[in-house]
Design goal:
With 433 residues, the chain is of the alpha+beta class. It has 14 helices and 17 strands. Strands 7, 8, 9, 10, 14 and 15 form a 6-stranded antiparallel beta sheet that branches. Strands 1-3-2 form a 3-stranded antiparallel beta sheet. A hairpin with a 3-residue loop joins β4 and β5. The chain is globular. The C terminus is likely disordered.
Length: 433
């Protein structure tokens, strides 16, 4: 049923040390992960596992929302309990014993990680291997370089073969304006899994509880101009939702809609209709460089219609507290991590704070009901997803912005390498000439 899944394991899985991996090891891994609290989301969704026999078990979930089973089945790494308990915490950090296609043979924290292909990898049938593992590379050395300029320079000087994330400001070194790679390089653009949007404070403590003023602000902001200025032309994809355009149930037709698209005449019209005078808004952001850049553009656009914006930047700790306070902000730039469905983003908006308020600083039972229907295994449909989108538009709860491209660059001896949207480099996917 919707919260119970039967799982069958291959009967020949083993780790790098030769320890077999059975149902007991899967249960050990999942319960250890849940008890650790490393991921609050995982702990909220995973209930328990029970063993049927060595190669069959049953998974129980706490939540039946769309995407829950996929998330729980993908999130937890599985290790052999015998191997895990044979090592100290320090040994596990330095030389963990896993089940993947590459093992760590040398590691220096903050320096490098040296990997070698596992020659007796348990999955010998290549047709059954994960898409993330081709096993073509024999040795891989991951060099840690925290500065973007250092990474770009290492590629230029041939000290590295591939840089999985090249800073947007440096991509011009490797890519022509028309999007083609420069001689000697291959470039791959991958949409990021995070979507930027600007929620409004709709509580009585903000002037933006006036929906006409929210509409005026929305029409006054050119999302394309904001994203162009921040990420460069072709460095992003606009969204008409806080959800990501690459999600399976995102409707491409939304991109053709007038979702409060930039229109100065309508901005002035709704500003007058709102009755608000001498409007001054507080825009709360983090210290992240992209948010700072977006905030400046938003400030400039709103100034053109006579709305003053004060940009207030806070570190992560203060931001976490202040965004719960209805008196601390009127607008804020936020980002939503998306995984499989639009409801992943919408759920984060509706269950934003432990004080019972959503991302828009109000309670909205109707929105909760619509999101629950869109995210139910038995009720998810084009119609229920569309209902949330239409309601968000009607309430004008936020300004959708979009998500940006991350660029991977390699020397031209590497033809391609996949970069997962959520910041994971799939090392086994290197394809060499």
């Amino acid at each position: 049923d919707n919260d119970t899944y039967k799982i069958e394991l291959y009967d020949y899985i083993h780790d790098w040390a030769g320890n077999p991996v059975t149902a007991d090891d899967v249960i050990f891994s999942y319960t250890t992960m849940a008890d650790s609290g490393v991921s609050g989301k995982f702990s909220r969704l995973f209930d328990s596992m029970e063993k049927v026999d060595d190669y069959n078990l049953i998974l129980h979930l706490k939540n039946t929302a769309l995407g829950t089973a996929q998330y729980v089945l993908q999130f937890c790494p599985v290790v052999s309990q015998a191997a895990y308990e044979s090592q100290s915490e320090g040994e596990r950090a330095q030389y963990p014993i896993g089940t993947g296609g590459y093992k760590i043979v040398d590691y220096v924290s903050g320096g490098y990680c040296y990997l070698e292909r596992v020659e007796d990898y348990w999955q010998t049938d290549e047709s059954l291997r994960s898409y993330a593992f081709s096993g073509q590379a024999k040795e891989i050395k991951i060099v840690v370089q925290t500065e973007a300029a250092q990474r770009a320079n290492a590629l230029i000087t041939s000290n590295v073969d591939v840089v999985p994330v090249v800073a947007n400001t440096d991509i011009g070194l490797f890519q022509n304006e028309d999007g083609t790679p420069k001689e000697g390089y291959n470039v791959l653009a991958t949409l990021n899994g995070v979507t930027y949007y600007m929620p409004f404070n709709c509580s009585e403590d903000s002037v933006l509880n006036n929906i006409d003023l929210r509409k005026a602000v929305s029409y006054a902001i050119d999302a394309k101009g904001v994203m162009d200025g921040t990420f460069g032309v072709n460095g992003y994809t606009l969204s008409k939702e806080c959800a990501n355009v690459m999600l399976g149930d995102y409707n491409p037709a939304w991109n053709e809609e007038d979702y409060y698209d930039y229109n100065m005449e309508k901005a002035q019209e709704y500003l007058e209709k709102s009755g608000a005078k001498d409007v001054s808004l507080r825009l709360m952001i983090s210290t992240e460089a992209n948010e700072k850049a977006m905030a400046v553009f938003i400030q400039q656009y709103l100034d053109m219609v006579g709305i003053k914006v004060e940009i207030e930047s806070y570190d992560a700790a203060l931001l976490t507290e202040y965004k719960k306070d209805t008196k601390m902000w009127d607008m804020r730039i936020d980002s939503v991590g998306n995984s499989d469905y639009c409801t992943d983003a919408w759920n984060l908006c509706t269950t934003a704070h432990d004080n019972g308020l959503n991302s828009f600083m109000i309670e909205d039972p109707k929105l909760d009901e619509l999101v629950a229907a869109a995210g139910g295994l038995d009720t998810h449909s084009t119609e229920t997803v569309e209902a949330v989108h239409v309601y968000n538009y009607e309430q004008c709860y936020y300004v959708p912005l979009g998500n940006f491209y991350k660029y991977s660059v390699a020397t031209d001896k590497l033809q391609a390498w996949p970069l997962h949207p959520y910041n994971y480099l799939l090392y086994g996917g290197f394809i060499f000439e």
